[in-house]
Structures
1.
Amino acid sequence: MGNKTAKVLIVDDDRSLLEILRLRLCSSGYTPYAAESSSEALLLAKTEIFDAAVFDMRIDGRTGLQLMREIKTIDSGLPVIFLTAYGTIGDAVQAMQEGAFSYLTKPFDHKDLLLKIEKAAAQSASSRRILRAGAGEDDSAMAGTIIGVSEKTKILRERIAIAAESDASVFIYGESGTGKELTARMLHESGLRKDAPFVAVNSSAIPETLIESELFGYEKGAFTGADRKKKGYFEQAHHGTIFLDEISEMPFAMQTKLLRVLENREISPLGGEKVTKLDFRLITASNKNLLEKIEKKEFRADLFYRIHVIQIELPPLRERMEDIPLLCGHFIRKYAQRYGKNITSISDEAMDRLMIHEWAGNIRELENVVECAVVLAQKDFIRADSIRFAGDTDRQVQIYREAKRRFEEIFLRQLMGKTKGNISKASKLSDIYRADLYDLLKKHSINPADFR
């Protein structure tokens, strides 16, 4: 039987066969997404992460091979199974040479298809594990998933997977809005302590006079107003994970006490003499450079080395712009459901606005912009005039030349990534003369060798 968390994309322009496939997958425990056309399949691929795909070799006048090539630019790791008639076996063989997972000739045995889907989903399971860890349990910027196809996002997922297998302390560095708490949750949900508590603490949000009692707890009568015993955050995280966000803002005196707790793995609640031994994993995060804070005598060097065993650096959105369409699709679905709207897509003009914007607030800002656009949308898609940024005046967009410059740079980087820096392939794919392509790359200081 299939894994009920496994999503399978099925594409066939024969509506009756498509429905039969959908029902069989449902009854076998899979979550099928059916598409009757290539365009519908591509839209789904941009907004969902699939574990396997089943394509007919002929779809609305095109070959399934063409569709696979396009979908592989969105998700290169998606295993594709082809259904082929006798006359298109040659195309199926070509598809296998280009990376298809398998194929079946019609008429086929549905048991054989289910077996191939099971193997395909199993093949992609390890790479999807980190992508889906914690999904649905968090309502933060990325709602429980590290979404994206950029190289930096792939590296981030791999880094999280490696760190999750260890119990060592992790330090997460990233600008505001890049998803530090999300990353911490994924480390916990993917690690050895996933069945134990995850306790998140924003160090900058606790008044200095209360931080010790909040972290380590207190006994009844420890101070005025302490009318009962209270467990601190560390004790609440016993056997689990404690996440200290914005640790750079922790008062210097408190850093000394924290260091002692980390060294001895024990606490003494305020007003009590009993020492409590604890077992926890520590994850910390900051949007500030702690080495600079150490130089200014604002952060203890010995505490830095204690928390800085494994470092994970979160890339800002401006360095993973190719992830914006997927993120946008995710947020559209999220807020369309929340506000009861039937919004399924976004116009090219609206997407262009998102792609050329300077995302100072990173993913959190993108989510806010998309939420606003969903609320403002009057049709079943988002138009450009629904995309509004903080600081917009008179609804004017950026200066044309600057917008064009940023679009060119994003386009060229994506083009080099798809072709692995091969100028001949890039020229053919983009329909830009080689000489002109070289001029554009030089203009934007892009070296094709960096993508090989």
2.
Amino acid sequence: MNNTGIVIGAGIAGLAIAIRMARRGMCVSVYEQAARSGGKLKEFRQDGFRFDMGPSLFTLPHLVDELLDEDLRPFYRQLEVVTRYFFEDGTQLKALADVEEFAIEVEQKLGVSADKVKGYLSHAEEVFELTAPIFIFNTFHRWKDVITLANFKRLLRFSKLKVFSSLHQFNKQMLGDDRLVQLFDRYATYNGSNPYQTPATLSVIAHLEHELGAYFPKRGMHQINQLLFMQAKRLGVDFHFNTKVDEVLVEGKKVRGIRIGDEEKWCKQLVSDVDIHQFYRSLLPDRKRLKKLEKFDRSSSAMIFYWGMNKRFPDLSLHNIFFSKNYKDEFDNLFERKLISPDPTVYVFISSKENPDDAPSGCENWFVMVNAPENVGQDWEQMRRQVRKAVLIKLGRLLKENLEACIVAEKCLNPVDIEQTTGSFGGSIYGASSNHLLSAFYRHPNFRKDIEGLYFVGGSVHPGGGIPLCLSSAKIVERIMVEKTKLR
């Protein structure tokens, strides 16, 4: 039993920790209530079109590569154009991967000096260097990880983090032009937060995308899930799909295992890749911890339309953003009124731009997303009709095209669907938002001090949501587990 481990959930973080545990010589079993692995990182096919259902932007690919045997590592192409932006005044801007070229593009299109852009990204790099070793690739829930000489030296540069300014305030001060401010405000949405509330520390995300680079796997985002699953199987990980875990068993101050129906499964190490709200609601009921979690703002969710289009659009890239005219009102709707703005910002992801096999000849597969609030009982069918109409009008106007006539396949996902298919409480994709100065410190840690052998990974716990952070959570848990159990 000392060498047995159980993982609940086969999302990307669950797969990552299963691989890491197996490489440490553990006998690992993964229990997943869905029919397949991947969590939010799934795909579906309809009428000849293939769609990635969830995450679409990929950064820090080395976090995937380090989990895979060399022969399994996929080909990633670094994007030359990260995102194409469309503004309501008719301005179009290409966010080029080359920082020098991007700065020149901004200067030519928006009139903001190239030096300002490079200065902003240089600041974002410095924030990354200060925060990554503490908040992204480490845990700060143990004093020995926090009180170090290196962290003391970082503390001397604390003012660089701009934690007492909102991201929007900082962007306005640094960049000036409303369109460029809106572009960099958008990075708050990468973890489901509000740029008018979240600390300016989130400027760090711009560094990941513009300076470390954005990538795309050869066969789409789902390929990451497929390869991690193959690697886990290669290492002997035992998967049980369509299997719902009913209870986490604890005896005294140690984890004992899980219960599935009337059957108990024993283990020494247990890792949960379940949304932390769901974990404390059903698997290990704990009203006190639930009450604490419910104090914090939930992240935004999404409404996604998957459209098979019967033509190609040469003016669009892999990633495209069509901005709303009033960004502040959009976030007031999301977080205050719990509604979707009548004029939402629209994200269009077209994987067939990189992999033509994802759509029939002459066609494109559109993943069309708008930010949505968490589910609190709204009339989502009515909202779907309203949003669909608004999106078609907006994109049709900016692209000068009758888009309704181009749609030949369609599917829609709303926050209720997201909660049902991924277990994300309320459909909040990233768990808690970062709409507070101390949000990072409020995230649930990756372990329980009072229960030996119980660990947590995934987007609803430290360090947060998104592929890189989920993979990092597994890396953190492995390190703690090794320290505590003396695994090889």
